[in-house]
Amino acid sequence: MKVLILGGAGMLGPYVVPLLAPHYQLRVTDITAPTFDFDGEFWEVDVSQPEQVLAAAEGMDAIINLSVLRHHRQLAFDVNTLGCYNMMQAAVTHGIRRIINTGPHFTVTGASYELFDFDLSPDIPPQPGTILYALTKSLGQEICRVFTTQYDLFVQTYLFCSFRDPEDLHPERDAHPFSVSWQNSAEIFRLGLEIEPAKLPSRCEIFYVLANAPHGQFRNDKAQHILGFQPRDDIAAAWLSP
Ligand SMILES: NC(=O)c1ccc[n+]([C@@H]2O[C@H](COP(=O)([O-])OP(=O)(O)OC[C@H]3O[C@@H](n4cnc5c(N)ncnc54)[C@H](O)[C@@H]3O)[C@@H](O)[C@H]2O)c1
2-240, superfamily in CATH? Predict the structure, then answer.
């Protein structure tokens, strides 16, 4: 399978790319070259530029979108929202049916959910709030969803919040109620590339990707049951430490 990765040179890229590289023919793209060890195909692609995304998607079987820009008003919209539009247009043009999008958990559970103390799932009514990052990413997500109502393709969206490094744990930070290790999070992309479309409940599905946590504020059971995601991190140790 040939897989296009958009925004593959960022923080998550160094975990996702090496994990996928032995199994797929990757075309990694970003606005800057990867600084991690990768000797495969790399293209400079700005997701806000439709013709660049279209060219990069030619001949691909799947697209993974890791690109993000968080704070600049114009650029955040160009990358997080228009980037999704350009990705979906490219998918339609080239007949690519498998798309994996990513974002922060608060595209669904924004500020108004902060005081909910347990059982938040990715399928509750989304309320991203007004943070630019959340809003522009949630608009991108909505664009993906609308494309799935019009075209025979399917989009999985993986949402993350706090990443941790099991080799370098800081209990005060790593006990965040929605966290996962970089290594464990990368595994879900392999599962998403392998799942048969018919096993997805619909053409547009959102998954929370996080470790099992003692408090259960956020749920990861959907990723486990549908994709076979195995939460491997021991977050309880961080949670219970003084
Ligand atoms: N890192 C985190 O703590 C975190 C937390 C929650 C969710 N996420 C989500 O995970 C995904 C990956 O995030 P990350 O941590 O790797 O982010 P990152 O900030 O490292 O950015 C990813 C890549 O996007 C690229 N990018 C920026 N503008 C671009 C453009 N115009 N065209 C193409 N690429 C562009 C950057 O160069 C970068 O390499 C994103 O969807 C993000 O929202 C990350």
Answer: NAD(P)-binding Rossmann-like Domain (3.40.50.720)
